[in-house]
Design goal:
With 276 residues, this protein is an alpha+beta fold. 38% of the residues lie in helices and 21% in strands. It contains nine helices and nine strands. The strands form three sheets. It has a five-stranded antiparallel beta sheet, sandwiched between helices. Strand 8 and strand 9 form a beta hairpin. The protein is globular. 46% of the residues are buried.
Length: 276
């Protein structure tokens, strides 16, 4: 009896302690098996800030006959939008002709809302810019429906919502997991910083440097993505993923209390996920 008691005790001692996080919501899963490793208000709808851009990128990359090297002319409307909303920017210059691939880096690394607008304008359909943007957001919602997400709705291409842009930690993790199946998406979101040669209006070129807002890259062993987000309503959000010894854990924290808290939350949850 004593022996079996000792075995039970050591097994209990080996079980990792469920972490406490500052974020209001959290979810982690094993990306390979889809099994849930951690939940905290995982199905509560919340504003998602720029983690919305994961779906923006996913919709772009799902286009049939996509040419990543096709050029998109930067319109004044995109920079006006940034100024009007005091939004995060890829510092795109009106008249420049970045490629779709470059716009994806500008979207996901510095979280450029101008890049998001450019992509929505390019890949939505319609005869006016507002029609194209509406069409693109429609594609985002169609993609959420395809993934069978019941608690996700988009009303913006970048997370600057109009009252009905929301998701949950579980749903966002599923969106990211699906997006990570795309090799271009994986390459973009694991990049710490990049310098890109962008064609200018006059046919010359300039170099644009973009640095990733996700500080887990390079600071957390095995980190491979995914996307930060923040906003007055959203608080501080982070969708994260890391691979160690062939195991990938992926998850989300929503409405954490600060930039440092969301990073700490994510590290705790990944540590816990790897032990499970």
């Amino acid at each position: 009896m004593l022996t079996s008691g000792a075995v039970t005790t050591s097994a209990q001692a080996a079980a990792p302690v469920k972490p406490t996080i500052a974020a209001k919501g959290g979810f982690v899963m094993n990306n390979g098996t889809g099994s849930t490793l951690f939940t905290k208000a995982a199905d509560t709808r919340r504003s998602t800030g720029s983690t919305t851009k994961i779906m923006t990128a996913k919709v772009v990359l799902a286009q049939s006959h996509l040419n990543l090297d096709s050029k998109v002319t930067v319109q004044k409307a995109y920079s006006d939008y940034i100024v009007r909303n005091n939004a995060s920017s890829a510092r795109l210059i009106v008249g420049d002709k970045p490629t779709v691939r470059q716009l994806l880096y500008g979207l996901m690394l510095p979280s450029g809302c101008d890049a998001a607008y450019a992509l929505a304008d390019k890949f939505g359909s319609g005869s006016t810019r507002s029609a194209r943007v509406k069409s693109f957001i429609g594609k985002m919602n169609a993609e959420a429906k395809k993934l069978n997400l019941k608690n996700t709705h988009f009303d913006s291409f970048d997370g600057i919502g109009n009252g009905s842009n929301y998701s949950t930690p579980r749903d966002l993790t599923k969106i990211a997991s699906s997006a990570m199946k795309n090799s271009t998406f994986r390459a973009v979101v694991k990049t710490k910083s990049t310098k890109r040669k962008v064609t200018t209006k006059s046919g010359g070129y300039r170099y644009m440097t973009w640095t990733n807002t996700n500080t887990l890259l390079g600071s957390y062993s095995g980190a491979i993505g995914v996307k930060t987000g923040s906003g007055p309503e959203a608080g501080y959000c982070l969708v994260f993923a890391a691979t160690r010894s062939g195991k990938t854990v992926i998850g989300t924290v929503l409405k954490s209390s600060s930039v440092s808290a969301r990073t700490s939350d994510a590290k705790k949850l990944m540590d816990y996920g790897f032990k499970r």
